[in-house]
Amino acid sequence: MKTNVIRILVGCVLSLSLSVRLLAEEHPKTILVHYMPWYDSKPISGNWGWHWTMDRFAPEKIKKNGQREVASHYYPLIGPYDSNDPDALEYHVLLMKLSGIDGVIVDWYGIKDFHDYGPIHRNTQHLVKFVKKAGLKFAVCYEDRTIIPMVNTRNLKATEDVLHAAEVMKWLDKNWFSDDAYVRIKSRPILPVFGPMYFKTVEQWKQIFAEIPTQPVFYALPHLAKSTGSDGAFGWPPVHGGKEITPATWKTYLSDLYARKHAEDSVIAVVFPKFHDIYEKSYGYIDDRDGKTFEETLELSMKSEAALVQIATWNDYGEGTIIEPTVEFGYRYLESLQKHKARKSGKTFQHTADDLRLPLMLYTLRKQTGSDRKVLANLDVISDLLFASKCNEAKALIEKYQSRIGEPSPAGNVLTAAPEE
Questions:
Q1: How do residues 269-278 score in pLDDT, each as one tens digit?
Q2: Are 341 and 347 contacting, i.e. CB atoms less than 8 angstroms apart?
Q3: Which of 138, 158, 219, 329 could form a disulfide with 234 if both were Cys (CB 3.0 to 4.6 A apart)?
Q4: H/E element holding 309?
Q5: How far is 35 from 312, CA to CA, in rounded Å?
Q6: 27-351 maps to CATH 1.10.260.40
Q7: pLDDT in tens, 348-397
Q8: Rounded Cα–Cα distance for residues 254 and 235 (Å)
Q9: Which pLDDT score is estimated for 27?
Q10: Are 395 and 383 contacting, i.e. CB atoms less than 8 angstroms apart?
């Protein structure tokens, strides 16, 4: 009798274990990261753009610690960069791949050449090429608030606002929605809209989507999802009123978000490391808590039914939500992602913390290299190896190049020759 009871208990435990495992398999996650393509640097674009200056910081000023004065509490490991610099884009996308990120959601301003919308569109197209080379996914988060300054400056008639947005959707449908690398839910392309902040009615969005054959899955911020008739909601760091948001508060926010009906299809889960903006009037503050905020929001997203997870953000320096490597936090968040991948699979993740250092080495070599075509071609070989996840081979070549860097010149260190093959 006792033996039978034990067998029954063991069977129940094994069954429960299998059920938990199957439940996890029923809700696989695609981890995406929200990306800002809006940075201009003087070396690349000829000027320091607003997102580095905010009209009150001076990047040309070098502080005592050797850093430029930029509009952020944090400093990129590669310094303030340009979103149209192929070296920076390569560096970012390689880091995403090596950390286990599945793709990007790009903060996108549409197709009109107004203010910095044109450069942001160009930079997004440039980024997508690297994303696809890495075998990652992409989508865009449309900023409909871009309509506001166009109408206010009479660059767009108020009576043609819906028509303009419809043209933007036609461009998306023709160029990106049909791309094999574009993120989909049940065969439909996703379209988060930040807000919406301009088009606020169900009827407006019906008109905007009316003429495209591929209807996207339309996501809005949670508090605007119902009024705009969206298909679902995406989470964001819940700051407000310039207050510090405690873990108890943001956990309640996430719990409410993940409790929505049909969460697998209608919710994009959110992960964030902190929120520490540098605006003149702050939106609020969320503490990093030595990395615990990122780890806990990641864990909650994994327990949710949501199929899509968005990390907010890769590089919003103005709001201080960055997970890309910085002077202050190093590779903390990317290493945390690697550890998560290892726990999820029950074995060592394909890439290591050491591998995460390789894109910076390649970036540095590119910036130290002159115009020698042979040298540049060999650096492209290293890049191809990293995109192919052949990190050990790439590291060996990088070390050969590092040993052959010449003396510093006014333009910086220059590679004088290719390594011996």
A1: 999 999 999 9
A2: no
A3: 219
A4: strand 308-311
A5: 8
A6: no
A7: 788 999 999 999 999 999 998 877 788 889 999 999 999 999 999 999 99
A8: 8
A9: 63
A10: no
Domain ranges of the chain: 27-351, 358-415
CA distances from 174 to 142, 178, 229, 276 (A): 16, 7, 24, 38
Residue type, 36: M
The per-residue pLDDT for range 230-250, each reduced to its tens digit, is: 999 999 999 999 999 999 999
In angstroms, the CA 209 to CA 52 distance is: 35
CB 239 within 8 A of CB 279: no
Q: For tokens 């608030």, name the residue.
A: 145
Structure tokens at 390: 């052949």
Rounded Cα–Cα distance for residues 119 and 110 (Å): 10
| The two three-digit tokens of residue 112, written as one number | 């009109």
pTM for the full model? 0.90
Helices (H), 200-357: 202-209, 225-228, 247-258, 263-266, 292-303, 332-345
Distances (CA, A) of 179 to 31, 174, 265, 320, 360: 19, 9, 20, 32, 30
Q: What tokens appear for 378 in the block? A: 């060999």
Quote the tokens at residue 157.
């008639």
Residue in the block written with tokens 């884009």: 89
| Helix (H/G/I), strand (E/B), else coil: 244 | strand
Q: How many CB atoms lie within 10 A of CB 356?
A: 21
